[in-house]
Please model this.
Amino acid sequence: MENVLVAAFLCLLVNTPMRAVEIKPVIYLLSGQGSDHRIFNNLNLDRSHEVFHIKYHVPEEGISLKEYAHELSEQIDISKPFILIGMSLGGMLATEITDFLNPEKVIIISSAKCRKELPGRYKFQS
Model:
């Protein structure tokens, strides 16, 4: 809302008609286990988007994926529209975050949306 008010004020100053102010969503990137922000280096994103890499920390022992997603989501500015892009474990975390935040889009790469989509060899770990 603040951006619209500033745009309206500027239009009055220069005596031009106001056009809709397009606010580009912030893109939050969630890498996979054992990788970091470099996994997204070859991802060609529109340069007009602000891009932010979610930083992981070592979770407490026994913490659930949902609880960890809540902790990581504190890095997301929900006052602006946002998009989540997650790779592997990051995709599962993005899906969890979607349960309690409202991103415009969620893109998961080489990941599973839920436990049922995991290959059998991974289910023993969860």
Notes: The chain has one domain: 24-123. Residues 112 and 118 are 6 Å apart (CA to CA).
